Amino acid sequence: MTIRDNYLLNVNFGISVDASDSLVAGNLVENFAGDGLRGLGDRCTFEYNTVKNCYNVNANHDDGFQSWSVGPDGVGTGEVVGVVLRGNTIINYEDPNQPHRGALQGIGCFDGTFVDWVIENNVVITDHWLGITLGGARNCRVINNTVVDRNDGSPGPPWICIDKHKNGTAPVDCVVRNNLATAFRNAAAVLEESNLRIQDPASLFVDAEHFDLHLLAGVAAIDAGSSTSAPRLDRDRIARPQGQGIDIGAYEWHAPEVLPVD
Q1: What is the pTM of this model?
Q2: How many domains does the chain have?
């Protein structure tokens, strides 16, 4: 299945995919309840989609992206394998005065096991604790994402988290690397490298208030990441690295004349 460059406006749930080997790319889901994106099939790619403006108008807990497994004994007893989440932007709300404003779970994946997932170059701006979360994972990597709090109130701040399955099984061979986030809450078994906790968004980003999370020149995130398994392009498809090293977060700082890779 290929679902590309569609505009979904004012919907209850956006794009849901059960089929394996599917591509969901370049879509905009604006003003939604439920889940903006949902992926339950194996080896699916969700890339460069934008999901924004969550409305809390029913009993569903709302996610920018959600997945779960189904096995012989029901939900949470199977595996979802080989999913790629790349370059997606998830924004809880744009207008602080939006009616029925919900607290949006960014990338919320519970009831694994999630196997061989790659979550890279995503931007998550949300008013919730769950920025990027995998509950039950094996051989998954969360690399070069940017996760920020939409406001200073509760719930939040949002975290990046790979944790145990609900049945108590610890994650295995998982890595969280080169991420910028307001919090990290990973299980002890998860390898954490070259991450940076956001203290003051205004001193780090071009215009965090208006969702521009490109890095300011000279900040600590520049050239501070690891090249190990780092994506070769950033959120804007700018080639990495542009300096002495990989930048931390979804965006690589670059000179104005540098153009995206087609």
Answers
A1: 0.96
A2: 1
